[in-house]
Design brief:
3-stranded antiparallel β-sheet; two-stranded antiparallel sheet; 283 residues; Membrane-bound Lytic Murein Transglycosylase D, Chain A; 6 helices; 3 domains
């Protein structure tokens, strides 16, 4: 880490760009975690010293524009929770732009659309994450559950509305337990072992499934991940969707809905296989 004296006109956003960090949330969280108590800031204060991280994992990818994401470049998908359709206004085309360049961009968009329509994404075959799902940190020792705070409306794989099955979104950063969720931190060795975990999420969850949103927020799948300002990388340990169901539940289940929850299962075939049995099945 290094120190920098804030100048007039500096903001967390401008400083994050200046020091090539992923976003201003990482800078703010990192500073407030490592600075003296009297220097904790919510806004950049000229004359004060700010702590700047130098961890490569917190740096922006210089091959991509700062503060951009794939979702900002394509039409927003339908909000499955509210049923409202979101759309983004396309910027007017620059009339002075050469036609060859415009055609090249069109070709790129067409190829991108074809790829998405073909269903070839890293999320293919992965499960959505629910509140009782568990996470792991590569620098921790315990495995906390989620605490969904971004909404109380949509559930995965549970029509009864059990809180355990609330859909987890990119904004759900709280964990259960809230204090020292990963136990001790390997990045903080001490004479007696390791110091307690100081969980400090650096921004939102990444690698979310942007095609499926709840209240306008992208949902998590098994490949989603989150960085901690201390230096740890948090990933999904268990998606949490497993639930017990009898044959009557299977027979009444909506095939299309179950196919979304369990994309690798042919649910119509599964229904046929369960007829005439008294065993319990897991979804």
């Amino acid at each position: 880490m290094k120190n920098y004296i804030i100048q007039k006109g500096d903001t967390f956003s401008s400083l994050a760009r200046q020091f090539k960090l992923k976003n201003e949330g990482i800078l703010k969280t990192y500073h407030n975690l490592h600075c003296p108590a009297e220097d904790v800031m919510q806004e950049a204060v000229p004359g004060k010293t700010i702590v700047i991280p130098e961890d490569p994992q917190l740096m922006a990818d210089e091959t991509e524009p700062q503060n951009t994401s794939a979702s900002s470049q394509e039409e927003s998908p339908e909000d499955i929770a509210s049923g409202e359709e979101n759309s983004t206004e396309q910027p007017p085309q620059n009339e002075e732009q050469p036609s060859e360049k415009a055609e090249s961009q069109s070709d790129k968009e067409e190829k991108k659309d074809k790829k998405e329509d073909g269903g070839s994404t890293p999320h293919e075959g992965k499960y959505f994450i629910v509140q009782k799902g568990t996470v792991q940190c590569n620098q921790g020792f315990k495995f906390p559950k989620f605490k969904v705070t971004s909404h109380q409306k949509h559930y995965w794989n549970d029509e009864e509305g059990n809180a355990d099955y609330l859909a987890v979104t990119e904004d759900d950063l709280q964990l259960d337990p809230a204090a020292q969720p990963f136990g001790q931190c390997k990045l903080k060795p001490s004479s007696g072992g390791y110091l307690p975990c100081a969980y400090a999420p650096a921004g939102k969850w990444q690698k979310t499934y942007e095609k499926v949103k709840v209240m306008g927020k992208s949902c998590l799948t098994e490949i989603s991940e989150l960085m901690c300002s201390t230096g740890g990388k948090i990933t999904i340990l268990k998606h949490g969707q497993q639930s017990e169901a009898g044959k009557s539940h299977v027979a009444k289940a909506n095939t299309q809905e179950q196919q979304v929850y369990n994309p690798v299962v042919d649910f119509d075939e599964f229904k046929e296989d369960t007829k005439g049995t008294d065993e319990l099945y897991y979804s």
